[in-house]
Design brief:
The structure holds two protein chains of two kinds.
Chain A lengths: L3 E16 L3 H10 L2 E16 L3 E5 L6 H8 L7 E6 L9 H4 L2 E5 L11 H11 L4 H15 L14 H13 L5 E5 L7 H18 L2 E5 L3 H7 L2 E6 L2 E7 H8 L2 E8 L2 H8 L4 E6 L2 E7 L3 H11 L2 E7 L3 H10 L6
Parallel strand pairs in A: 3-7, 3-8, 5-6, 6-7
Antiparallel strand pairs in A: 1-2, 1-4, 8-9, 10-12, 10-13, 11-12
Helix pairs in contact in A: 4-5, 4-6, 5-6
Chain B lengths: L2 H20 L2 H25 L5 E2 L2 E2 H35 L2 H5 L5 H7 L5 H19 L6 H27 L1 H4 L3 H13 L9 H9 L3 H12 L5 H26 L8
Antiparallel strand pairs in B: 1-2
The chains are: A alpha/beta, B mainly alpha.
Chain lengths: 331, 264
């Protein structure tokens, strides 16, 4: 049986925040008498993550995903509740715990700006107590996986965003952590760089059985890497489970685009039992429930004179968009 | 604490930091020229004060020059280590890059206090040592081992007090986010340390002994260098130093509990 590597129970986090009215008067008032209030950004959440799982945290901006990640890796103290990661209480930041984890943030960098990435790798290697031979071996292995070689010797400031992100990954993984926390790792990358990064993470997970917790606003990252998602809405978990199941639940219909031999054939379909979404000349799009796809196709093929047909899933982005603004999804 | 690990990491810090600085040669040259001009300016200012009087606060020019030497040495240390690292804490906290430091299996205070060095400060350290050696000669100070050990202890204490004060102020960034000005104020107070404490009024002497311990940073070490101080003052300086170092360490560990990291 696969063991739980992350165990979160009744976790809450509150922050002190201050608000300011507009105008000069508001600014002066804010300077002398700041109104602060306690804001509960994470509200009594519980979940478990198994070793080797890749879990995506979904939610709108400000929903609390990054705060959860930061509490899991020990950067922020929880206000209430308990977190155990790999047998440790993260906020104590014990060295053995820190050697097991890594945090990669798409919008922040740890590489030394004026030097080639290789210098930062060796610096990290000395912090993680790796000897020169072992460090060299790991750099070689990871740079092969990430397909970066010459770039390791060029100052970071002269690298493209994609090359920099790959180097950031290498710097963050040199100690071979078994839990990866990724906060929007593909932010700002072009489509190819995003795809390469996903490919790498997939491979890293398969080869090392590392657990990956990630947030991303690029749905392709989530759909291609995460079997399980945890949806966060206003600091609470609105859904925790299988991504495919969620998509099926939220999108119970498929669209079938039928290209008929003539416009009359399309009109015949329009006048039949199907729900028509739209019709343009000899092309007609109908909506069919997932459960009746097979029988509907049989009816169409047997009764109408058609040239071609396409079955389309509704765009995942649209479905996920619904999750971000709703509160509860029970399956 | 694994000492050999920390030594290895510090060697890497030195290496990467020097390599980064050497990327910008002109900047280093400008810093070096600034250090020399600043020293010339300070000695010129001191000589103006002594033009109309043989002593200030009981110190003659040759003796006061020792304070200038210690100040230059401390300023060099501050420019080499404190300025590039401790002012960076504010940036780390504002931009949330302290996250990377806190998630490394290494003492966070060690990391943020020593990661960078500015080689131009070395010149000031050498100039400071040069002035001190010159002062030994003109003040006819007889050098022996116990004297040198006392000088070393008192200089280490000065550096530690200055570091602790600076680090303490930088730590408050965790709550106040922007504290650039506070460290500037500290530096301005340090300028006061170029003059003997006795040259100030009684109330200022109390202020510079208790709140901003200039007395312990430059005046007492200067007295030690001149062989004028009593042993109890050195003991007191060691105690004050321990209090400052321990308090700033405890304060950092306490402050980290309130670190909220920058939003993404």
């Amino acid at each position: 049986m696969v063991k739980n590597i992350i165990d979160v129970r009744n976790l809450s986090k509150s922050f002190e925040t201050s608000s300011k009215e507009p105008s000069l008067k508001g600014t002066i008032k804010h300077f002398f008498r700041r109104k602060t209030k306690s804001l509960k950004v994470i509200k009594n959440i519980s979940f478990e993550i198994k070793e080797g799982e890749i879990v995506g945290f979904l939610g709108a901006n400000g929903a609390g995903k990054t705060t959860i990640l930061k509490m899991l890796c020990g950067l922020i103290y929880p206000s209430e509740g308990r977190i155990v990661v790999s047998g440790y209480l993260p906020y104590k930041r014990k060295n053995n715990f820190l050697k097991n984890i890594t945090l990669i943030m798409g919008q922040k960098q740890q590489l030394i700006w004026d030097l080639p990435p290789i210098e930062s790798f060796y610096l990290n290697a000395s912090i993680y107590e790796l000897d020169k031979f072992e460090a060299k071996k790991r750099i070689k292995k990871l740079s092969d996986m990430l397909e970066i070689h010459d770039e390791l010797f060029i100052p970071v400031r002269k690298l493209s965003l994609g090359q920099r992100m790959k180097s950031e990954l290498l710097a963050a993984l040199i100690h071979e952590p078994n839990i990866l926390f990724l906060d929007e790792p593909t932010l700002g990358l072009d489509i190819n760089a995003q795809r390469n990064l996903r490919k790498f993470l997939q491979k890293y997970n398969e080869e090392t059985n590392a657990t990956i917790c990630m947030t991303s606003h690029y749905m392709k990252d989530i759909t291609s890497l995460c079997k399980r998602v945890i949806c966060v809405h206003n600091g609470s978990i609105s859904y925790d489970g299988d991504l495919d199941l969620l998509i099926k639940k939220l999108s119970p219909i498929k669209e079938i685009l039928i290209v008929c031999r003539s416009e009359e054939d399309a009109t015949k379909i329009e006048n039949s039992v199907f729900t028509v979404k739209n019709k343009i000349k000899n092309e007609i799009t109908i909506e069919v429930e997932n459960a009746s796809i097979a029988s509907s196709l049989k009816t169409i093929l047997n009764n109408f004179n058609i040239e071609d047909l396409f079955i389309n899933e509704p765009p995942v982005d649209e479905i996920i968009g619904k999750i971000l603004i709703k509160k509860d999804y029970e399956i | 604490m694994n000492l050999s690990k920390y030594l290895k990491v510090y060697t890497k810090f030195l290496h990467t930091s020097l390599a980064s600085e050497l990327e910008y040669k002109t900047n280093i040259l400008i810093d070096l020229v600034t250090a020399i001009l600043s020293l010339i300016g300070s000695i010129f200012l001191l000589s103006i004060f002594f033009q109309n009087s043989n002593t200030i606060g009981g110190w003659n020019f040759e003796q006061a020059l020792i304070i200038q030497g210690i100040y230059t040495l401390l300023n060099g240390v501050a420019n080499t280590w404190f300025n590039p690292n401790l002012t960076e804490i504010v940036k780390h906290i504002r931009e949330g890059t302290l996250d990377f430091v806190l998630l490394k299996p290494i003492d966070s205070q060690f990391f943020i206090s020593l990661k960078r060095i500015s080689p131009s400060g070395f010149l000031e350290i050498m100039l400071g040592i040069g002035i001190l050696l010159y002062c030994f000669k003109i003040n006819q100070i007889h050098l022996n081992l116990s004297f040198l050990v006392l000088c070393l202890i008192t200089i280490i204490c000065s550096i530690s007090i200055l570091y602790s004060l600076w680090f303490f102020i930088s730590t408050t960034t965790i709550w106040f986010v922007k504290t650039w000005n506070a460290t500037e104020v500290l530096r301005s107070f340090l300028y006061v340390g170029r003059f003997p404490l006795n040259s100030f009024s009684f109330s200022l002497r109390i202020f510079f002994s208790i709140f901003i311990p200039i007395a312990f940073i430059t005046t007492i070490p200067s007295e030690v260098f001149l062989g004028l101080t009593q042993l109890w003052k050195i003991f007191l300086e060691v105690i004050v130093t321990s209090v400052f170092v321990i308090t700033s360490r405890k304060f950092w560990l306490f402050a980290l509990k309130f670190y909220t990291s920058a939003s993404s």
